[in-house]
Amino acid sequence: MLTNNKDWAWIGSMFNSDQWQPAFANAGLDFVTGDEDGMHQMRHLFASYMLTQGVSIKELAAYLGHTSEAFTLKTYVHLMPSSHQRARLAANLMFPPRATQAA
């Protein structure tokens, strides 16, 4: 578990005030209060990265502490990589297309 210098677990507000806001200031950026910047966005970054690495919704829900995989899917489905080509290949493996004869 990630802890601060007092060996306390980070919570969103502590992380924002102790780490995130100073990092923004050092970078010369304005910090926006609310969900636009901060720990909440770090969770989204983590979730999107995990999905691109092939982590399942069930695993991601557990990592994020969600009690429902359905909630995780509803929240992050737009970040899931989509591959119509992969779906077509899977269907072709299950139902191989017939070879066509040249006319």
From TrEMBL:
* Origin superkingdom: Bacteria
Q: Which GO terms describe its molecular function?
A: DNA binding
Keyword Transferase belongs to the record: no
Task: Return one Gene Ontology term, BP aspect.
Answer: DNA integration
Q: Which UniProt keywords apply?
A: DNA recombination
Q: Which InterPro entries match?
A: DNA_brk_join_enz, Integrase-like_cat_sf, Integrase_catalytic
Q: Which SUPFAM superfamilies match?
A: DNA breaking-rejoining enzymes (SSF56349)
Which residues belong to any copy of the Tyr recombinase domain?
1-90
Database matches in Pfam families: Phage_integrase (PF00589)
PROSITE patterns (alphabetical): TYR_RECOMBINASE (PS51898)
Report if keyword RNA-binding is assigned.
no
What protein name applies here? Integrase
Question: Which organism is the protein's source?
Answer: Crossiella cryophila
